[in-house]
What does this fold into?
Amino acid sequence: MLSGRLFAALGGVALVTALLGRVRVLPRANLWLRVGRFSFDAFYWQVFVALVCAICAFAYFGAARLTQRSPNQIAGLASFFLLAVASAIWLVSGFVPTSRRPIMPLFAAMFFFLLGLALSVANVASVFLRE
It folds into this structure.
């Protein structure tokens, strides 16, 4: 249950950060991706992180409520830590003023995000497979 609460809190922080950036309370982040004619700025990435954290929180709450066993707390905390580090790297690299886009921190953030997400999915899936 602790992992679910932490994921819900991280999702809330990501959503508040996205909304504050959207109404121009926070400075404009240098996090955008352009693929063809489509462009995704920091708002969409932060909303995506909030949605992923909400899905992880619901998965942990659902696994704890629907099964007799709860997910492994150490693996849940490790996956939360990896997602939190990825979010922190992403936000810090977006608000640091540079002349060009910081490529290496963004790749590190993507790596930590995918690793944390994979660990979280494996943790919740192991609860349902053990039943």
Observations:
- The beta strands are 33-35, 38-40.
- Residues 2-130 form one domain.
- The chain has a mean pLDDT of 85.
